[in-house]
Amino acid sequence: MDLTTATKITLLAAGLIFLLALILGIWKYREMSVNDDHLAHPYVDIAHRAALLYSFATLLIAVFVQLSGWADWVNLTAAMVLVFFFVAAIASYIAHGLRRDTTNQFEHADAALHASMAALIIGEVGGFAVLLAGFIDGQFG
Question: Going by C-beta distance under 8 Å and a sequence separation of 6 or more, which residues neighbour residue 10?
């Protein structure tokens, strides 16, 4: 099967996110091995787990990209909106893990955090809705 360019790029993103997850696992292991309670900072743990989950979610997205009936640029745009928000979330978890500034980013949530969450919700749900509609069009239309 020939993969579309959008699918190849989405698969590359999945691989890069998975590689990041593996690297974050090293950081998590290091913290677990040196801390008295043998736990990593909560946001180090969250970053590691989120990256693992988002890497597999990106693989799922690649399947919908490949099987979509929409134009390649539409599929790539929708997929990259999802990937952008996945990576942005992981980056924010890494930042909290590095700063060790909180164990719950919503404890002192401000307007910027709520705006970011609204953008994330619209981007992720909207991006996937486009791909799901493309899949329906391509496979059942």
Answer: 58, 61, 62, 65, 76, 79, 80, 83
